[in-house]
Every structure is written in structure tokens, then in C-alpha cells.
Write a structure and sequence with these properties.
With 325 residues, this protein is of the alpha/beta class. It has one domain: Rossmann fold (3-Layer(aba) Sandwich), CATH 3.40.50. The protein has twelve helices and nine strands.
């Protein structure tokens, strides 16, 4: 079996619909026959609450610190406590997907990641073991469940947790709302990614023989404009103008710096860079979150919106598969 493809839908700006996009793209890939693993690596636990009933989530959070814990925090806690390596947990299987549930206490692991990173500079095996812990966990579950696609749900920040997540990914997708704030966020996004790649190049060279290392080569594979209003058959005037500005700044602030490091870090660019688009589906998004299903699985939603959502995400999933081939 070929290794699972690891992706993050990443933009450190909040409110651009990363979780909704991740979940629905995962469902679309699953309906195309792909095995998909979701890693809820955001301490806000949005994917977990999206896909698992509230009462079950409460039980998961309450038990996560104990020996029977079943969240991502339960898996990495031994590393934080200094008791050894990461611990195996059982993946949940909501609606045909595999999920490693999130946990608010993952913030404790994020704080520890700063020490792990510093230990790498000192060539200490503990540093590389801790820095690559999430990657090792993904490798185990991807092999166990014959996973084709892994999606990290990264939080809206550029902290140490997202640094190791992006450095573990094969590809990343940039979502954006058609507004000024999404455009302004691109400069920080490009700068951070470039710095992370450069830093890890240095640390990889310092790694002791046999120490685990991250791939450290996340490739841009597309962007997705979201939440825009439509007029007729396309974007309304103002969203369309912001979309054009977003596309230009994405090329200038993110793709150009990546290409200066290595041309292969940009898998697609120019007019072909848009992976798909997701219009404003209004209350359909809230209903899908309440019902724990894809947008096109919502009960009681408007029929035309359900059809449009299914068509949009299926096309996006097919295009993603095509680009990775």
C-alpha cells in the first residue's frame, strides 16, 4: 500500500471555515471510495464536536487524562509526563470516517513542543521523539486502517503545534473568505511556512543517527474561496473583487517565497491553483454540524442547496485526487 497522503487545510486566520471544509471534503473523498483519517489537532475540538454526539464528547473529555483515555491528548500525555512514548488509543469511526478525537488539554502538549524543538538543536533524541510524536501516531493509524488521506484540523494560529503539523504534511490547502482580513493574513502565512521549512532543514541535519524526523516539505496544492454570496451563476461583485486580490496576494506572499526555497513546494499555481469553491450555504452549515453529517446529508435542508453542496465537494475531491496523482 502506498503511504497515506497527509494534508492540512491551513490558514491561521479564524473564521474562514477550515473545519467545515475539512469535514465535507473528507466525506466527499469517502464517498469516492477513499479511507480518510481525521486528526482533531485543534484544542478547540471542532471536528470532534462536529462528528460525535455531545454526551460522548463529554465522556471523552472527562476520561482523557486517565489510563482509559481515548483522545489525542491521551495518546501524547506520556510524552508530556516523561513516562515514555506515545500511547495507542482507539480511533472512532463516525459515518464512514476515522477520527482521533481532539482535547482541550492538547495545549499542554503544545507548550512542551517548544522544549522538544529546543532539544533538537542540542541533538537530543528526546527532542526528535517529541517533535515527531503526532507524525508517528498518524503513521500507525494510517497503516492500521489502510488510510488513503489524512487531514489535520489545525487551529487558527502559527504556534508550535501547527508548525509540526505543517512540517509533517505532504500538501496544504489554503482556505479564504472573500474579505480583506483573509488577504492580510497571507503575508504572515507565507513568512511562517518559509521559516518553518528553513528551520527544519537545519534540525534534520542535526538529527542523531536513527532519530525520527519530519518530512519538512509541505507543498501548496490549491486554495478554496468560501462563504461568498452569488449573483446569477457566479460570485457577486464584491466577493469577486476580493477573490481576485486574494489570488494575487497568495501568489506574491505565499507561493513566491516557497518557490525561492524549492520549486517543487508549489504543486500548482496561476489560474489552475483554485481547487474548488464553496458559496455561502447559510443555515445548511449549522444544520450539518448539528446532525453530524455532510452538507448534502442534512435532513430538512433546501433541496437545491443540498444538490449544489454535493456537487461542489465531489468536484473538489475529484480534483484533489487528480492533482495528487
Amino acid at each position: 500500500m502506498a503511504p497515506a497522503v497527509r494534508l492540512a487545510i491551513f490558514n491561521h486566520k479564524g473564521g474562514v471555515g477550515k473545519t467545515t471544509l475539512t469535514v465535507n471534503l473528507a466525506f466527499a473523498l469517502s464517498e469516492l471510495g477513499k479511507n480518510v483519517l481525521l486528526i482533531d489537532s485543534d484544542p478547540q475540538c471542532n471536528i470532534t464536536t462536529y462528528l460525535i454526539e455531545d454526551a460522548v464528547v463529554d465522556d471523552l473529555m472527562e476520561a482523557s487524562d486517565g489510563p482509559d483515555g481515548k483522545t489525542i491528548w491521551s495518546a501524547v500525555k506520556p510524552l508530556v509526563d516523561g513516562d515514555g512514548g506515545w500511547r495507542k488509543i482507539e480511533a472512532h469511526e463516525p459515518s464512514g470516517l476515522y477520527l482521533l478525537p481532539g482535547d482541550i488539554r492538547l495545549t499542554e502538549f503544545e507548550r512542551e513542543l517548544n522544549d522538544f524543538w529546543a532539544n533538537c538543536y542540542q541533538r537530543r533524541p528526546r527532542g526528535f521523539k517529541g517533535t515527531t510524536a503526532l507524525s508517528s501516531i498518524v503513521t500507525y493509524y494510517a497503516s492500521k486502517h489502510n488510510i488513503d488521506f489524512v487531514f489535520y484540523d489545525a487551529g487558527p494560529n502559527i504556534g508550535p503545534l501547527n508548525r509540526v503539523i505543517l512540517l509533517d504534511c505532504d500538501y496544504f490547502i489554503v482556505p479564504g473568505a472573500c474579505d480583506l482580513f483573509s488577504i492580510n493574513a497571507l503575508k504572515t502565512l507565507g513568512k511562517s511556512l518559509s521559516e518553518w521549512i528553513h528551520l527544519w532543514d537545519t534540525l534534520r541535519d542535526l538529527a542523531p543517527d536513527g532519530a525520527p524526523v519530519l518530512k519538512g516539505r509541505p507543498k501548496f496544492i490549491g486554495y478554496v474561496p468560501q462563504g461568498f454570496r452569488v449573483y446569477g451563476q457566479g460570485m457577486a461583485k464584491w466577493p469577486a473583487e476580493y477573490h481576485n486580490r486574494f489570488r494575487k496576494e497568495l501568489n506574491r506572499q505565499v507561493l513566491t517565497p516557497l518557490k525561492k526555497i524549492s520549486g517543487d513546494l508549489v504543486a500548482v499555481e496561476g489560474s489552475k491553483a483554485k481547487l474548488g469553491e464553496v458559496k455561502d450555504f447559510a443555515h445548511l452549515v449549522q444544520k450539518s454540524q448539528e446532525q453530524g453529517c455532510p452538507l448534502w446529508g442534512v435532513e430538512g435542508g433546501p433541496g437545491y442547496q443540498i444538490e449544489e453542496a454535493q456537487k461542489a465537494f465531489r468536484a473538489m475531491a475529484e480534483e484533489l485526487i487528480r492533482r495528487i496523482k
